[in-house]
Design goal:
Layout (H helix, E strand, L loop, with lengths): L1 H21 L6 H13 L2 H12 L5 H8 L11 H14 L2 H12 L3 H9 L4 H29 L3 H7 L10 H10 L4 H29 L10
Helix pairs in contact: 1-5, 1-6, 1-8, 2-6, 3-9, 6-8, 8-11, 10-11
């Protein structure tokens, strides 16, 4: 529930803001877009191993930098306080694909809307909330659903970082189902857990689709009815 109801809004918000920044046409912007997309191509196992190398307690790059500045080392993966933010950060790190989708959606927003708003005296912040977000709402719905499914089914990060620990802090539903099946050898129970997860994802997806009528704007439906 933590990763779904807290990490999903954080991750999607970051994806939107990153796509808005990358949409600014400046010299070298294509290079930055490519660099941000590259981590998305890396397999999840390799990505987690990379973060283990960075945040390892003894030989991690981050702890070595902290020691160089005279600060004490941090047990990132052994701390209930830090393990969840690190997993969320990994999800943000791997957001190149959704950011590319948001970037494509931004390219599809008619330029005359921004021109008209500038003539009316709207600032950048007002244009973002009155034009950009409403026009991006279909893409936001898609991103929220996909990110929700991703966090519900998350397994690799939980297993490789600290085997679901410490004190169950990084234990996810899929990791629990995996252990039920292949550690406890309760395959029927694990199958029941899988069906429950399917029902939960289906229910939340239907609720999101139902609520989308109130906050998702489709330009094709403008003036209909």
């Amino acid at each position: 529930m933590f990763f779904v109801f807290i990490a999903v809004p954080i991750t999607v918000s970051f994806q939107i803001l990153t796509s808005v920044v990358l949409n600014i046409e400046v010299k070298g912007s294509h290079v930055f877009r490519t660099l941000y997309f590259l981590p998305y191509l890396v397999p999840p196992v390799a990505t987690v191993i990379l973060w283990v190398i960075m945040f390892g307690t003894d030989s991690g790059i981050i702890n070595q930098l902290l020691a160089w500045f005279g600060a004490s080392k941090v047990d990132w993966f052994g701390s209930e306080q830090w393990i969840k933010p690190i997993i969320v950060t990994i999800g943000i790190w791997m957001s190149g694909g959704p950011v590319l989708i948001f970037l494509s959606a931004l390219k599809g927003i008619p330029g005359y809307l921004y021109e008209a708003s500038r003539i009316d005296g709207a600032g950048a912040v007002r244009r973002f909330f009155t034009i950009t977000l409403p026009m991006l709402s279909p893409t936001i719905l898609f991103a929220v659903v996909m990110q929700m499914i991703y966090y519900f089914q998350m397994f690799t990060e939980s297993m490789l970082l600290n085997n679901g620990g410490p004190n169950y802090a990084s234990r996810t539903y899929m990791f629990n189902t995996f252990q039920t099946a292949f550690r406890d050898m309760k395959f029927g129970y694990a199958m029941a857990q899988s069906w429950i997860l399917f029902a939960i994802i289906l229910l939340l997806t239907l609720l999101l689709m139902k609520s989308s009528k109130r906050w998702v704007y489709y330009e094709s439906e403008k003036g209909s009815g």
